[in-house]
Design brief:
Elements: E1 13-14, H1 21-41, H2 48-61, H3 67-77, H4 80-89, E2 91-96, E3 101-105, H5 142-145, E4 153-154, H6 155-176, H7 185-213, E5 216-217, E6 228-229, E7 232-235, E8 241-244, E9 252-256, E10 258-272, E11 278-293, E12 296-299, E13 304-307, E14 323-325, H8 332-343, E15 349-350
Parallel strand pairs: 1-4, 5-6
Antiparallel strand pairs: 2-3, 3-14, 7-12, 8-9, 10-11, 10-15, 12-13
Helix pairs in contact: 1-2, 2-6, 6-7
Length: about 350
Amino acid sequence: MVQQNVDFIGGGFKLTLPYTFGGWILWVLGLIITGFGVAAAMTDPTGLGIAVIGLIVLAAASPGSMSAGLHKMRKEAIDPEILQAKAEQSGYSVDNWFLQQTTLVPTNDPNDWILPAPGPQTWDTANPYGPHGDGTPLPEHPVKVGTPQPATMTSHLVFAGTAAILTLVVGAVLIGDEEAELGVIPAIAIAGVGFILLLVNYFRAKALRQMLDTPTSLVRSAPVGHPELVGQVRPGREGGMTVYVDGNERMVMHHMVGYYWTYEQEQEREVTDSEGNTRTERSWVTVRSDRGGVPFMLHDGTGGIKVNLTSFKRAEYGQMLKRWSGAFAESLGKQLMAQAAASLLGGTKVTG
């Protein structure tokens, strides 16, 4: 099968490099900044601070130990016609040039299926909670592909760890330099950044270990308690929802079982400091938001189980599905109300 082309056992160390054009640009930029910082450190040790910035960029551009393989698997496993149809629906489009209304649909979703999932036309509507077909788990279920074991150490960890160590070194240099005019505040700040980086990597590794230690169960034999289930989301007997974002017919999503949307405005205001200098500040402000959901079915091929979405304290939906933008509100009334509400905040002006 296709998944055999990917090594799911990461081992001790794996050199991970970007696999997209944008990732390579960011990676090369980080490498240049790091090299410049190292060269500057030859004459002034505090130049390592520049290298720290470059290492952080390198860490951000370095993917996980399996990201490249999974990306390649997704492209090879899914029907090219499906990928083409999805590509045509994705991207940036202009809905109304006069009102500057645009729509953005992400072209890549890291949470999407890697191996093909059974479509609605193959679902058993007479017995929706029963086994699918011969009752074997879905092709992407951990029972079939095995539990992935990422590499213990990757390029991301090397770059991030080195950045953390160098921040401590730069902090020590600044503290020990009696002739430094900046005092100990920058050194403490840099040391704090290094400590935060160490904590972030520690908790990421701890969370990953907890996920690996939790076995994935099948629906047909799920134990009582808090099992981990993997499957396909299908509408329950309640069906799906049609969600109108902010009550607008232009901004609509169909066949939803759970949603969370926010309506944000870019506002600007004039700020005057104690010396009489005036500057313009811009910020995005959440005006309205809403969330909701209906019970749905999680089906892993062996059977389905009802999930009551609203009973969970936290629900992570991943990246956005769609974003609508415009220079003005969707109606004149809403635009006037938004401007009036912003004015109450002390001369704030709605800009987008």
